[in-house]
Design a protein that fits this description.
- The structure holds three protein chains of three kinds.
- By secondary structure, chain A is an all-alpha fold.
- Chain A folds into three domains: 18-167, no CATH class; 168-256 and 365-473, no CATH class; 268-343, no CATH class.
- Helices cover 74% and strands 0% of the residues of chain A.
- In chain A, helix 2 (25-42) packs across helix 8 and helix 14 (312-344) packs antiparallel against helix 15 (357-380).
- Chain B has one domain (3-79): Non-ribosomal Peptide Synthetase Peptidyl Carrier Protein, Chain A (Orthogonal Bundle).
- The longest helix of chain B has 15 residues, at 3-17.
- Chain B has helices spanning 3-17, 39-53, 59-63, 68-79.
- Classes of the chains: A mainly alpha, B mainly alpha, C alpha/beta.
- Chains A and C meet through helix 1, helix 9, helix 17 and helix 19 of A and helix 1, helix 9, helix 10 and helix 13 of C.
């Protein structure tokens, strides 16, 4: 069941009501049953995989916490992590080779399981003995489809809290707001931009250079709208059950360099890789100085790429970011070094005009956005040949077509421009929105605002999304 | 070595690694308070601290540090 | 009667806690309910907006068949004496031009319009005929019938169905009721915008005779459909026809239940069509065009007979030389069926 189908919400409301009707441990049991039922709708076979993987990691976690020797702990950790990674690799390889349907959320719940094992290894206290609470961790249905990837400790703590406390009406209302906002972003902006991009992509050689350039920028904007919208829906549904999840985005279009961008984009994934891959790796490679650091960065980014899928496009995406990030780190490091050297020598400031900080930030953000969009050519394209074909057109190696903006019907291009504007505005942190919402909250009661949003959701969504598919009947 | 001495020796290292000459090192300081303190500069800081104090940290040591105070304790333990 | 003489403060506090929690929960529920009510009121209000009919018939596709049908009815002064409605079987399998020619040779000047189009669903055919009766006075309406009545409504009905027809259908248990209803506010808003800014929405308010003339009206010869060539002349072998996958009509348990409750949507709308035809003095004729090697009988023939003659061309079923694919006649098949239909029309007392 999709988070954008009306039927899902018709079922969700009573499901949440029943959750709060239960009390204590029964809430967790009910939530686990609900999560497994949700998963079973997708695939009963893969539900078995989820349960088996959860059980294995649960047992290994207990084993690590119980054993005294470092060697034993390491052995259990290695077995567990290797097994989970083997499962991911096997499915991703099958997926790339045979167009195979992957188990729902396998990339996400497997990362949750690995992080649990590593946390227990680092600190015995992190073990979770309660099986219900533990099994809920990888299965928690709001986060299972596309994350965000929550850490074990905040999840366990919140689970225990929700078993003990009463419902928090403010949190639930916030959850509803997150869902509403996320749905609007995903279906009104993301899906519409997606439809626009798909039309252009199908015959991109017919379109002018200007159109193609804008479309490539759209890849980034559309992905942001779609994924940030989706994440907010997931976070919102989690809040309905009393669970606060980690954010995935933090105004990514304000990023002034690629390093900054990755601190603001798909944060739950990048933080996961930082904590469990990059930091340990760079620690072990620290004797190799600059080379070790660059090596750790490259491996990190390549894994971000292929985590999405074992295809050439995702690999190239990873490699591109490895290069971007390495170069950025080296340049920034060099600039800092020079600045400190100049500062130590107490030299007078270099003569000549220095660009104002604000201008540098804007240029940096534009360059970062350009680099991100460039890499999106590979991330977004279905096949490698499609990516290279678009690249060739942008590089001028292949001819562009004649269809420009003025040749496109207004009902096609105008909604696209509006959506681009909205995605860019929100992705840049929605400057000025707080003041606007403040005055809005003073004039219109919350139910009126929500009602208008629900209305807009139902009338502005594109033909495909949000409508009952009558085949279901 | 006393913690105050470690703290004073740490200050120039921090200022260098985090590129902030006005940085004041306190026991309660965390990475969240320093804009330039991210996973990359963190590694550089670890390397610089190890070199300066002649110690070697393990990932477990470093992982659990919640603030600079705990780092000072760690250095004191390792340098002893 | 309690055991302890101490008043139960904890119990009282717990009671307050749970009742506060219940209040908070109810308040929250109230906010949710109020939001839904606001959304519903806004949606209903939007449904009161007026529509430009010509633009409405362009909604499905500004270059589509529905637009042509509307133009043929309202902007083309040529009368329509015989109208044909049905799914794509009738669109390809009956040639209006051939029927006209045949009847002309018999000395009868008859204008035939083939309004059959892709997709099954009697509601859309009723909408087309309803529109037809507004501007023209057909003497005969030909409805194509399949071996089994189609249980669902047409997926395009939501675009052109009258507002009242969508909000108050002949039965509230139509399969597409919610589907069509959910689309209504979207259509109203789109048409409202299109009325003010036709260019922006790509729905014109001005009739363009050149665009109208460019429309294909006869699908019994080869044409390009969905980017693919539909070859109506080429002879397809029996084996190829038999090997083609036949698309089954989806029948979930819920769908079957709805059909049992509403009595069959196909019949509901045939009754509506029959009522309107009677009011306008128009004859109804039913034509069965079979699938290749499909059933030759019409399962609801007894029901249909009460409204008009049922012309069963089921005998065409085994003739592989007359089929373009498993469910559509080719050019030869269309000529055959058209000749027979012309014959039948000639025999009617008009």
């Amino acid at each position: 069941m999709s988070f954008t189908s009306p039927l899902f919400y018709v079922v969700l409301v009573p499901a949440v009501a029943v959750f709060y009707w239960f009390s204590g441990r029964w809430r967790a049991i009910y939530l686990l049953a609900l999560s497994y039922a949700f998963y079973a709708l997708s695939s009963r076979v893969y539900l078995v995989l989820l349960i088996v993987a959860s059980a294995a990691v649960y047992a290994l976690g207990l084993a690590i916490a119980k054993s005294n020797g470092e060697r034993a702990k390491q052995a259990y950790l290695a077995v567990g992590v290797a097994a989970v990674i083997a499962v991911i690799v096997a499915f991703k390889a099958a997926g790339a080779w045979r167009d195979f349907l992957l188990p729902l959320g396998v990339s996400f719940y497997s990362f949750k399981l690995i992080s649990y094992l590593i946390e227990v290894y680092w600190d015995d206290e992190a073990v979770e003995r309660d099986p219900i609470v533990f099994f809920l961790f990888p299965a928690f249905f709001p986060q299972i489809i596309s994350g965000p990837i929550q850490r074990p400790e905040p999840f366990f703590t919140q689970m225990r809290a929700i078993m003990a406390r009463s419902l928090n009406a403010d949190q639930i209302e916030t959850g509803f707001r997150f869902i509403l906002g996320g749905l609007m972003m995903k279906t009104l902006v993301g899906d519409r931009l997606g439809a626009f991009i798909e039309t252009i992509d199908q015959s991109h050689t017919n379109y002018s250079y200007g159109v193609m350039l804008t479309t490539v920028a759209c890849y980034t904007l559309q992905l942001y709208a779609d994924f940030s919208g989706y994440t907010n829906i997931a976070l919102g549904i989690g809040k309905l059950f009393g669970v606060e999840g980690p954010p995935n985005f933090n105004a990514p279009f304000l990023a002034v360099n690629i390093q900054d961008m990755w601190r603001r984009w798909h944060m739950s994934l990048t933080l996961w890789l930082t904590d469990y891959l990059f930091t340990p790796l760079s620690m072990s490679l620290r004797d190799y100085g600059q080379a070790g650091l660059i090596g750790a960065i490259c491996l990190n980014m390549i894994i971000i790429g292929v985590w999405h899928g074992f295809t050439l496009n995702y690999l190239v995406f990873g490699i591109l970011h490895a290069v971007f990030l390495s170069v950025t780190v080296l340049i920034l490091g060099e600039l800092a070094r020079r600045k400190r050297a100049a500062g130590k020598a107490k030299a007078p400031p270099t003569p000549g005009w220095r660009p104002p900080g604000a201008l540098l930030r804007v240029l940096g953000a534009a360059l970062t956005f350009a680099l991100m969009s460039f890499s999106q050519i590979f991330f977004h394209s279905e096949t490698f040949s499609q990516a290279t074909s678009i690249l060739a057109q942008l590089a001028g190696a292949a001819p562009s077509g004649s269809t420009g903006w003025s040749d496109m019907p207004a009902y096609f291009s105008v909604p696209a421009w509006i959506c681009m504007g909205v995605a860019l505005y929100v992705g840049a942190g929605a400057p000025g929105a707080r003041g606007l919402f403040g005055s809005l909250n003073r004039t219109a009661p919350n139910w009126l605002q929500y009602g208008v949003c629900l209305f807009l959701l139902s009338v502005l969504s594109t033909e495909g999304s949000g409508q009952f598919i009558y085949g279901q009947f | 070595m006393e913690k105050s001495e470690i703290e004073s020796r740490l200050t120039p290292i921090f200022r260098d690694v985090f590129n902030d000459d006005a940085l004041v090192v306190t026991e309660g300081m965390t990475a969240a308070e320093v804009p330039t303190w991210d996973s990359l500069s963190n590694i550089n800081m670890i390397i610089a601290v190890e070199k300066a104090f002649g110690v070697k940290f393990s990932i477990k040591d470093v992982r659990n540090l919640k603030n600079v105070g705990e780092l000072l304790d760690l250095i004191k333990r390792k340098a002893a | 009667m309690g055991n302890s003489s101490e008043p139960d403060y904890d119990g009282a506090l717990n009671g307050i806690e749970t009742s506060r929690e219940r209040m908070a929960g109810l308040r929250l529920f109230g906010v949710l309910a109020a939001s839904l009510v606001v959304a519903l009121i806004l949606s209903a209000a939007v449904c009161l907006l007026p529509e430009n009919d010509y633009q409405k018939w362009q909604l499905q596709d500004p270059d589509g068949r529905l637009r042509w049908i509307y133009e043929r009815i309202h902007f083309d002064p040529t009368p329509i004496d015989v109208a044909i409605v049905g799914p794509s079987r009738a669109q390809l399998g009956l040639s209006a031009a051939a029927i006209e020619q045949d009847l002309a040779q018999r000395g009868k000047r008859v204008n035939v319009a083939n309004f059959a189009m892709l997709g099954s669903g009697r509601d859309l055919q009723w909408a087309i005929l309803d529109e037809l009766f507004k501007a023209k006075s057909p003497k005969v309406v030909v409805l194509e019938v399949d071996e089994e009545p189609y249980p669902f409504g047409h997926f395009l009905f939501k675009h052109v169905g009258l507002t009242e027809a969508i909000v108050f259908p002949p039965s509230p248990f139509l399969h597409n009721y919610l589907y069509n209803l959910a689309y209504l506010p979207i259509r109203k808003l789109k048409l409202f915008g299109a009325n003010l800014f036709p260019g922006l929405f790509g729905l014109t308010k001005e009739f363009d005779p050149k665009h109208y003339a460019e429309n294909r009206t006869d699908y019994s010869t080869s044409f390009i459909g969905d980017g693919k060539l539909v070859d109506m002349e080429h002879r397809v072998s029996r084996d190829t026809l038999l090997a083609e996958p036949r698309e089954p009509v989806p029948r979930t348990r819920f769908a079957r239940l709805l059909t049992r409750i509403n009595g069959g949507e196909d019949h509901l709308f045939i009754e509506k069509i029959a009522r309107e035809a009677k009011a306008h003095g128009t004859q109804l004729v039913f034509v069965h065009l079979p699938m290749f090697e499909g059933p030759r009988t019409v399962s609801d023939e007894d029901f249909l007979k009460q409204f008009g003659p049922v012309l069963n061309y089921g005998d065409l079923a085994p003739r592989d030389e007359l089929f373009e694919n498993w469910s559509h006649l080719n050019h030869a098949g269309a000529m055959n069926a058209s000749a027979r239909l012309a014959d039948a029309i000639a025999g009617l007392k008009l």
